[in-house]
Amino acid sequence: MAGSEAAFQAAEAGVQVVLHEMRPEVKTFAHHTGNLGEMVCSNSFRSDDDEQNAVGLLHWEMKQAGGLIMNSAYAHRLPAGGALAVDREAFAETVTAAITAHPNIRVSHDEVSELSGEGHWIFATGPLTSEGLGRAIQAETGTDRLAFFDAIAPIVYAESIDMDVAWRQSRYDKGETEEEQKAYINCPMTKDQYEAFIDALLAADKTEFHEGETAGYFDGCLPIEVMAERGRETLRHGPMKPVGLTNPHDPETKPYAVVQLRRDNELGTLYNIVGFQTKMKYGAQKAVFSMIPGLHDASFARLGGIHRNTFLNSPTLLDDRMRLRSKPNIRFAGQVTGVEGYVESAAMGLVAGRMAAAEILGRTMPTVPQDTAHGALIHHITGGAEAKTFQPMNVNFGLFRPLEGLRGGRKGRRERYKGYTDRAKEAWQEWLTAQGLDLRAAE
């Protein structure tokens, strides 16, 4: 989807585009057709609420920008409550027809397995990046800059953590500054709470591996439920060890176990649960993690998971124009940049296509505003995220700069989210207008 959107946006700007698609000549274990925009998982683009949901806002922004993926989705919408679900076959056929019929686009069914130093390129591969191209990217970026599997710990909105229970402290107060010494949020457990947590963890429903995934990956990063299966005390001597920490709410009582959360973005709005990568099903994760003291009312920006993926450590590799720092003639877009989901991937294709076209045509493109959904994602993957813990991320309001003067917490959430979307829409319209797009045509 990201490649199709990037090609379409560049072509609409008047640039001649060659879209390289290796399917159906080279197949993957997940795809079944040679159509562009084939949906290999769900047929849903998730919430379509552009006032109270960040992905719905992303829908709105893409539609305003004349996005191929979003317009094709609305053309084949199916009843799904407040979600945007589509007829997946008709959707893919529409995307394919629009690309192949475009006078400025030529589709070449071949596998690209090198990073050229000439011309303008956008690589919009995703979880199923071919082995040859994966090796080429790894050779250019370094072996430690390209991951082939997600090992995702759950990410929690900071405002939803109960700080009357939890406290901020790095283990043994490590760090030269107060910020470093309080870099972690700690949730204490008694022995009974820990034993109940282990019982729930062992009994929880887990997902199975898909074809093409391998368990060998876990040698370096075990799911918490696998650690628990190796012994009830394993987690207490691993990611949940209570040493080097003192609970200021009850300094005389030493916790039996401690769950730590580490800041996940520079805004300090998101925290990941350290060492809690998991194969539990989403419903089970919410139930089990709500047992952690301090997280009983936690809201999750994303839940944990372990599955095949291929993505860059984008904060260290890409500039704010999605260009590879070592080869600026190359841009990346889509899931390989470290965004998660159909919509987010296509959105990165939309901005990458426009950026590439502007550069080719010698036009100045204004920076994508950070207060838009597109801009929040770009900022996150190109520098806003912590590079050491970078993992793929869905769009969510935790990536947005806070609004002053609005109530925090759950009770102020509706007003706050409306504030985010109103601010984003105004900024997005100004950005499109600066590029000469007639917004009335997108209505």
UniProtKB/TrEMBL annotation:
InterPro entries to which the protein is assigned, alphabetical: FAD/NAD-bd_sf, MnmG-rel, MnmG-rel_CS, MnmG_N, TrmFO
An example Gene Ontology molecular-function term: flavin adenine dinucleotide binding
Keywords noted in UniProt: Cytoplasm, FAD, Flavoprotein, Methyltransferase, NAD, NADP, Transferase, tRNA processing
The reaction(s) this protein catalyses: uridine(54) in tRNA + (6R)-5,10-methylene-5,6,7,8-tetrahydrofolate + NADH + H(+) = 5-methyluridine(54) in tRNA + (6S)-5,6,7,8-tetrahydrofolate + NAD(+); uridine(54) in tRNA + (6R)-5,10-methylene-5,6,7,8-tetrahydrofolate + NADPH + H(+) = 5-methyluridine(54) in tRNA + (6S)-5,6,7,8-tetrahydrofolate + NADP(+)
Cofactor(s) named in the record: FAD
Gene3D superfamilies xrefs: FAD/NAD(P)-binding domain
Pfam families named in the record: GIDA (PF01134)
Domain MnmG N-terminal: 2-363
Cell compartment(s), UniProt: Cytoplasm
GO CC, one annotated term: cytosol
Xref: PROSITE patterns: GIDA_2
HAMAP family for this protein: TrmFO
Function: NAD-binding protein involved in the addition of a carboxymethylaminomethyl (cmnm) group at the wobble position (U34) of certain tRNAs, forming tRNA-cmnm(5)s(2)U34.
Family: Belongs to the MnmG family. TrmFO subfamily.
Official protein name in the record: Methylenetetrahydrofolate--tRNA-(uracil-5-)-methyltransferase TrmFO
Native organism: Allosediminivita pacifica
